[in-house]
Design goal:
This protein is of the alpha/beta class and 164 residues long. It has helices at residues 27-37, 46-51, 82-87, 101-107, and strands spanning 3-10, 15-18, 21-22, 41-45, 61-65, 77-79, 94-97, 113-119, 128-129, 138-146, 156-163. The protein starts with a strand and ends with a strand. The relative contact order is 0.26.
């Protein structure tokens, strides 16, 4: 089976977005995202794909989920369901689920690990949230706490969880 990781940046309330945009601009989070996902497969919903400023992300296999059979996403493969998309992956493929909220919810039972950026702030407005990370299911594997600075308005931590 392929390795499935979920990657997201969450605020104190587990909020992840507002009006199809990220809540925070954290350059180090974006660098981590690029370092982890480059050379691997990224899987996302159609709205997340449409939110990418330049479309499909380079040097990655881009997979988009859409229930509309006419959906075309340039530079990406489109599948009607998470299960169909996962079946298309090779055993040695590392798949990163990159959003949005409903895709995270669907993918949680399939995930081997969570790669979260936990932001020590609360976004003023949010309309998309990450599912609950239950301590009965997930165990913290590593945490790298970083302070606020001139490029990062809030302190944050890169936290990896593994399934118990």
């Amino acid at each position: 089976m392929s390795k499935v990781s979920i990657i997201a940046a969450v605020d104190r309330r587990m909020a992840i977005g507002f009006e199809n945009k990220l809540l925070f601009w954290l350059p180090n989070d974006l660098k981590r995202f690029k370092a982890l996902t480059t050379g691997n497969t990224i899987l996302m919903g159609r709205k997340t794909f449409e939110s990418l400023p330049k479309g499909a992300l380079p040097n990655r296999r881009n997979i988009v989920l859409s229930s509309n059979p006419d959906t075309v996403c340039r530079g990406a493969e489109v599948f009607p369901s998470l299960e169909a998309a996962l079946r298309s992956c090779q055993k040695d493929e590392h798949i990163y689920i990159i959003g949005g909220a409903s895709i995270y919810q669907q993918a949680l039972p399939f995930a081997d690990e969570l790669c979260l950026t936990e932001i020590d702030c609360t976004a003023p407005k949010a309309d998309a949230y990450f599912p609950e990370v239950s301590s009965k299911v997930w165990q913290e594997k590593s945490r790298e706490a970083l302070p606020a600075d001139e490029k990062h308005l809030c302190s944050y931590a890169f936290v990896d969880y593994v399934r118990k």
